[in-house]
Amino acid sequence: MQLRLPWSTPVTPVRAIDIGGRSLPVKIVRHHGARRYVVRVTSDGLVRITVPRRASVAGALAFAQSQSAWIAREWARRAAAADWGDGTRVWYRGELHAIRCTNGQIACGPALVKLQPAATVRAALTAHWRLEAAAALPPRCVALGAPHGLVPARVVIGDQRSRWGSCSARGSISLNWRLVQMPPEVADYVMLHELVHLEHPDHSRRFWRRVAEVSSGWRSAERWLRTTGSELF
After folding, report:
1. What pairing do the DSSP bridges indicate for beta strands 89-92 and 47-52?
2. Among the four 43, 59, 139, 186, which has the fewest Cβ within 10 Å?
3. Alpha carbons 34 and 118: distance in angstroms, whole number
4. For the chain, how are helix, strand and coil distributed in percent, rounded to 5?
C-alpha cells in the first residue's frame, strides 16, 4: 500500500483552460471517494481538478473557471518557486528557511552546499537533501518500528511525485526523500504508516486502529500533509 498525495489518482487526457489570458493545461481526476470538486496547481503548472466519479467534464471546467482568481495567484506562486535563488524560502525539517547564495555556496538552514558550474540552486540543494535522506531515514524507520515488532525487509529512498511512501508485499518500504523537509513528527508518522502496512496491507479499520496505537499524533500529521505537503513539490 502507498501513502499518496491527495491528488494522485487516474486522470483523463489533458485539456486546457483560459486563466487571465493564459492557456493552462488541465487534468480532471475522477475519484470514487470525492464528494466535492477540488482544484490544485502542481509544481509544473498543471491545473488538476479532483471530481466525484460521475461528475461531468463541463462541470469540472466550470468549477475551475469559478476559481480562476485563485488559480492565477497559485500559478504565479508556483512559477516563482520553480527556480530557487537568493531569498527563496523552502521547507527543511518543518521550518521555512531563506536560501542565501554567496561566493559559489548555498546556505539554507544548517546546510552549506557548494554550487557546481552549470548547476541550479534547486538541483544542488535537492541532491544534498537526498543524500541526507538516504543516510538518516532508513535507520530511523527501523528504529521506529522495532518497539512495535514492525521490521521491514529493507528501506529505500526514492524521488516519488505522487506518494510519500509505500510498502511492498515483500515487506520493502520506499520513502520519499522529501520527508527530510517535513516536521520530524510528520516524517515519523509517514514511516509508521508504512510500517503498519507490514501487518495490514489495506486501509481497513484494523489498520487505522493500529496506526493510532503506534502514532498518537497521526491526525495532526495527516492534516499537515493535506494542507502543506504540496509545497514540498
Report:
1. unpaired
2. 139
3. 44
4. 40, 25, 30
Residues of the chain with pLDDT under 70: 1-2, 4-14, 43-44, 80-82, 118
The radius of gyration of the chain's CA atoms, rounded to the nearest angstrom, is: 19
Instruction: Report pLDDT digits (tens) over 179-191.
Output: 999 999 999 999 9
Q: How many CB atoms lie within 10 A of CB 108?
A: 22
Exposed (0-12), middle (13-18) or buried (19+): which is 114, by Cβ within 10 Å?
Answer: exposed
Residues 226 and 143 both lie in one domain: yes
Secondary structure of residue 33 in the 3-state scheme: coil
CATH number of the domain bearing residue 144: 3.30.2010.10
The three-state DSSP-derived secondary structure of the chain is CEEECCCCCCECCCEEEEECCEEEEEEEEEECCCCCCEEEECCCCCEEEEEECCCCHHHHHHHHHHCHHHHHHHHHHHHHHHCCCCCCEEEECCEEEECEEECCEEEECCEEEECCCCCCHHHHHHHHHHHHHHHHHHHHHHHHHHHHCCCCCEEEEECCCCEEEEECCCCEEEEEHHHHHCCHHHHHHHHHHHHHCCCCCCCCHHHHHHHHHHCCCHHHHHHHHHHHHHHHC
The confidence score (pLDDT) of residue 173 equals: 97
Q: Which helix (H) or strand (E) holds 16?
A: strand 15-19
What is the per-residue pLDDT for 204? Answer: 95
What range does the domain containing 97 cover? 89-123
C-alpha angle 230-231-232 in degrees, rounded to nearest 5: 90
Say whether both 198 and 177 belong to one domain. Answer: yes
